[in-house]
Amino acid sequence: MLVAIVSGFVLSLFAPWLTRFLGRWAGWVFSLLPLLITLYFARFIPSVFGGDTFRTTEPWIPSLGIQLSFYLDDLSLVFTLLIAGIGALILIYSGGYLKGHALLGRFYAYLLSFMASMLGLVLADHVVTLFVFWELTSFTSYLLIGFDHKREEARRAALQALLVTGVGGLALLAGLLVMGIAGGGFELSALLEKGEVLKGHPLYLVILLLVLIGAFTKSAQFPFHFWLPNAMVAPTPVSAYLHSSTMVKAGIYLLARLFPVLGGTPEWQGALVAVGCITLVTSTLLMLRRTEFKPILAYTTIGVLAFLTVLLGWGTDTALKAAAILLVAHALYKGALFLVAGAIDRGTGEKDTEQVGGLFKPMPLTAACGVLAAFSMMGLPPFLGFMAKELLYESLWEWGPHALLLKTIFLFSGMGMVLAAWVCGIRPFLGREGRTLAHPHEAPSLWVGPLVLSVEGAALAFIMSPTGAWHGFTPPLAAGVTAIAGGLGLTCVRQAVRRLLNGFAFLYRLGPESWYDMKLRLLDGFASFQTRILQSGYLRRYLIFTLATLLVSVGYYLWVRNIVYWPDVFSGASLYEAGLSAIIVSAAIFAVGTGSRFGAVTSLGVVGYGVALLFLHLGAPDIAMTQMVVDAISVILFILVLYHLPRYRLSSSHGTRVRDGLLSLGVGGLVTLLVAIATRFPLDQTLTSFFARESLPAAHGRNVVNVIIVDFRGFDTLGEITVLVIAGLGIFGMLKLRLLGRGEGDASRSEASAQEDT
Asked: N or C: which end of the chain has fewer CB within 10 A?
């Protein structure tokens, strides 16, 4: 399993180069990898659906107990086959759809990386592994949605998808970690057996809320649904793969995976059914307003995800069976319809369903694919969509006669599905030829993918016929017939319905997407405000914030803890030390208060030499010598610099000087207090003894301080020297540029003077 996942990432690294080498056959060659993965996992079908499971583990971060563990059961196998199988068809389709694109190799790399990320997500057993691949799908989908990065619309949609799903990912991480702590382990295969423990845990509601946020953002459930239609600016292969078959179903996979752990409670049922129903109504109403192929298909995708959410929320055997079949049926017919829409776009140059017609004759293969997929989406026999619809309505009738509102919502959304299937998969090929931007024609290699997917929808129905056997005219069948009849009726009045809904367009502008835009503007405004405060470009402000934070945080802690030892600060000080301290303090006060630069520099020199004398008195002559040399050089450099400055003048206000003085006194007092506190505790002599003992035999030096700097902490010293060298080179470069600028300025002035003289 690990090899299957890693192989996608490895191939993506070489995809750009291989695309240049393979040319128009690159997509066909790349499709061999997901095809082999599909065949490899297909051999597990008999054993897995017979009840067997498989698990592999590779060490990753043993110190934290995190393993690269993968788990294969019936749920993960279904998703793996969909991801790899449809991925192979998408790679073939991409070569024809983006033929001649300068960045086609990069597109293949993104697509392969996304496929590998999805495989890792559905096969992951450890919660951290699952989260890592969950975020990788968000990142790679960001790259795919924003593939046409020169378009502002594509960049905005990619960022929106990344932010929405990224926030959900953070919530999911917190939920998974809390769930692991509550369940006593982080392997999903083990947690699946601890459902009763987690459902009775005090943190169950917290876990449930965090997990649902992650699932709802990924699967575009209300109020996070808006990012999916906006992501339709991506190339059609991206829409067909990410937004119908794979990524948006990651949230559904998560709900299905955690159903044994978190499902079956009133909270679970209430949350999933309520959110799913609201999403169904919202997506259907928004779909009825649109006429473009991809937005219509996107909103119906949201609707199917809402159906799946409701079914998983209800959680009966019939509902779970309906969810499984609907999951597969939708991936097949919706993937085919997206690819058909892309073929129509490439063949006619038209994206609007109302502008195309009569395409059956010039595009017969595409027409056959579209009609077959549309029949499955409508729920007509003998397609897999019919079986899914029958089980869906059958599970709905298990709610009893009191669930009138839920039945109404399902029928209304079912009618919308029929309308969408008609306008996207059947109507474009009927009637008279529309006014298109290009002459309609069948695009090479664009019919392979939709043909395979649409035929599979019928083939699987025959294979699984016992599940959807005829049971006579039942209420669920009547509901399905009603939805089909109502949907076909809607096609006749769709223009009037669209005009009616457009009359309430102002309500849509107040929806969740406007909330997202408002929050993004607030975030940008806060970031700008914070940047102006914290990144003002003035060193004095940086020092003020840093020192004030230090003073408030540390000072408050010492005050609360009552850690103050002022009486012992100067105990035992000699007259010599007291005198030097007085001189140092007096010189520092004079340096602050004087109006003369030279006086201030001289006072700082007195401070430095006073500190050096203290070092000498305390038995550190080498440090004292270093201090004197550094201080002497500093004073000389200050004087040389100040010589070229204008005359001294007071540039700060009285209030500013008072503020700076109080802050300086506060920080100075805090540091003095910290030193006093530190001296009250006994020193740990472990390092002292080690350096004294090892300096001569290990480093051949008697000066312990020098040995520490040069030998025991040699890499630190090397790093400090490197930093100083880089800083020096930078200063030299700036000085050289300034001198060159002066030279050019002098030359230009000389040339101007010469021209005037001439």
From this structure: C
61 has which bridge partners? 66
Residue 758 has a pLDDT of 43
By C-alpha distance, which of 76, 323, 80 is closest to 188? 76
State pLDDT tens for residues 684-732.
Answer: 788 888 888 888 888 888 888 788 888 887 787 888 888 889 888 888 8
pLDDT score of 100 more than 90: no
649: containing domain = 539-683
Contact between residue 548 and residue 663 where contact means Cβ atoms under 8 Å apart: yes
Q: How far apart are CA 646 and CA 643, in angstroms?
A: 8
Q: Look at the chain and report how many structural domains it folds into.
A: 1
Task: Give the pLDDT score at 244.
Answer: 75
Q: Is the per-residue pLDDT at 648 higher than 80?
A: no
Q: Cis omega (within 30 of 0) on the bond before 223?
A: yes
Under DSSP, the state recorded for 437 is: S
- What is the three-class DSSP state of 515? helix
pLDDT band at 649 (very low <50, low <70, confident <90, very high): low
Res. 30 pLDDT band, cuts 50 70 90: very high
How far CA 171 is from CA of 164, 222, 308, 551, 688, in Å, comes to 11, 16, 21, 35, 48
**How far is residue 106 from each of residues 109, 117, 428, 594, measured CA to CA in Å?**
5, 17, 33, 66
Q: Is residue 631 part of a domain?
A: yes
Tell me the one-letter amino acid at 322. Answer: A
Task: Judge if the upstream peptide bond of residue 382 is cis by omega within 30 degrees of 0.
Answer: yes
Measured CA to CA, the distance from residue 370 to residue 213 in angstroms comes to: 35
In-domain check, residue 576: yes
C-alpha distance from residue 499 to each of 217, 290, 291, 493 (Å): 30, 11, 12, 10
* 139: exposed, middle or buried (Cβ count in 10 Å: 0-12, 13-18, 19+): middle
117 part of a folded domain: no
**Bigger pLDDT: 405 vs 419:** 419
How far CA 24 is from CA of 101, 107, 292, 345, in Å, comes to: 11, 14, 30, 20
Scan for tokens 């978190």, then name that residue.
262
Nearest-5° Cα angle at 71, 65 to 74: 155
> How far does CA 13 lie from the centroid of its chain?
21
**pLDDT over 90 (residue 382):** no
C-alpha span between 116 and 247 (Å, rounded): 12
Closest CA to 591 of 599, 582, 583: 599
Contacts of residues 434-438 at CB distance under 8 Å and 24 or more positions apart, as own/partner, are 434/348, 434/350, 434/355, 434/356, 434/357, 434/358, 435/355, 436/348, 436/349, 436/350, 436/355, 436/356, 437/348, 437/349, 437/350, 438/347, 438/348, 438/349, 438/350
Please write the tens of the pLDDT for every residue from 290-341: 999 999 999 999 999 999 999 999 989 999 999 999 999 999 999 999 999 9
Nearest to 346 by CA among 229, 241, 450, 431: 450
Question: Which amino acid is present at 543?
Answer: L
> How far is C-alpha 341 from the chain's CA centre?
29
Rg (CA), the chain: 36
- Rounded to whole angstroms, the Cα distance separating 577 from 618 reads 9
CA atoms within 13 A on the CB side of 735: 6
Rounded distance, CA 116 to CA 10, Å? Answer: 10
What SS3 state is found at 13? helix
Q: How many CB atoms lie within 10 A of CB 312?
A: 23
Name the β-bridge partners of 292: 352
- Calculate mean pLDDT across residues 581-602: 84
Instruction: Average the pLDDT over 265-271 and give the result.
Output: 94
Question: Does a structural domain hold residue 595?
Answer: yes
Does residue 498 have a pLDDT over 50? yes
